[in-house]
Glutamyl-tRNA amidotransferase
Amino acid sequence: MSYEAVIGLEIHSELKTNTKIFCGCATTFGAEHNTHVCPVCLGLPGVLPTLNKRVLEFAIKAGLALNCEINKFSKFDRKNYYYPDLPKNWQTSQYDLPICENGYVDITKSNGETKRIRITRIHMEEDAGKLVHSG
């Protein structure tokens, strides 16, 4: 019996934006702990997130660069899991209706052949958070 190895990669990128993806809180690194938070970041009842326009622009540019279909309709979902660095116990993310999908990158192999690397999707999601311990 013969098998073919298929390897998938999940690649994350941190976008250089002035504010977070779903609120107006600053993204300045190195600030005092818990100073760049608001009711949206904390998932308090009654608050609604607003998508950062710059994040959407970055996602569309990445989709165009990777030959993706840019969807006219896209949605976000709550991905529920319990990690200590996730204060809301959910992460706002995309899955079944991402902003971009069905793309590819062509690379040239050492023998001159072209190999097509498929891109399943590009989706936007908030960063879960970070635990910082002094020791």
In short: The mean pLDDT is 92. Helices lie at 39-42, 53-65. DSSP finds two helices and five strands in the chain.
